[in-house]
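2024-03-11 09:14:02 DEBUG pipeline.ingest accepted 1 chain
2024-03-11 09:14:02 DEBUG pipeline.ingest length=308
2024-03-11 09:14:03 DEBUG pipeline.predict start
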Amino acid sequence: MTVRPGWMRRLAGSGRVELIPQGRMSGPMPWVIAIMVAMTAIALAAGLALGNAVSAARAEIEGGVTVQIIEPRPEVRAEQAALAIRAIETMPGVAGFRQVPQAELDALIEPWLGTGVTGAAAGMPGIPVPSLIDVRLEGAVTPAKLAQIAQRVEQVAPSARVDAQSNWLKPVFEAMLSLQVLAMVVVALLAVALAAAVLLAARSALGTNRNTIEIVHLLGGTDAQVARVFQRSIGYDAAGGGAVGLALALVVVLALGRRFEGLGAGLVDYGALLWSDWLWLAAVPVLATLLAMLTARLTVLHALRKML
């Protein structure tokens, strides 16, 4: 005789005995899952934002070269800058260039050195600031192209220094990639922790309801039917907890996004989440629910084989 899953809740006379004696979204399990999902979504959002920032910044500066005219005498510095620009104009593979205005240079150093330190505004001697020429190449900067530009510019401007813009930010990129890997490791560890929590909850419920399960087997119930009850109950709890956790994570992510958006600084501007990233975040509670249900089913089936 085959026992329907609904009979498993009515095995003690007229009373109501459940294999997992708790209501929906009651007990610790849904809230544990909510916390796990929230932390996973936040860590995933951080990893995706870091990846977007690195990719966008690299695409922006991969063809950039900076020429600095490091000369303390203003008249000599201006003369060498003009000669360097003429040399760059005749070079093949140059998509564009511009000399950074003095006002922009003053704005860059103002947060650290204050206003008026260069003496440009008042016509007074001040800290000498190198002239900067921003060069954009048609392709990515290679060591050969960089050496060619340096050789051509240094012939007419001995105090020039030529650097690839990507070299400046290479340590920053490496640090951000390390943080991205760390975020993905955190996501994986949280998934393992979620599975472990479900495993412990399923084993606890099995031990509490051992006598009921034995009666179900005597009446003809199968291991698969018993496992289905646990799987369904854990699925409800995981779905509810996952929805709560995702809502909490979205509040945190949006709040942090607004705070970083107000900074308006450098790499932070490139760290916005794309529409595909939001889909990944929305998939977190779905994947958590599937993982919880699969873990519960495998745990129950494995325990039942040893029990009976």
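2024-03-11 09:14:41 DEBUG pipeline.report Residues 1-17, 119-124 have pLDDT under 50 and may be disordered.
2024-03-11 09:14:41 DEBUG pipeline.predict end
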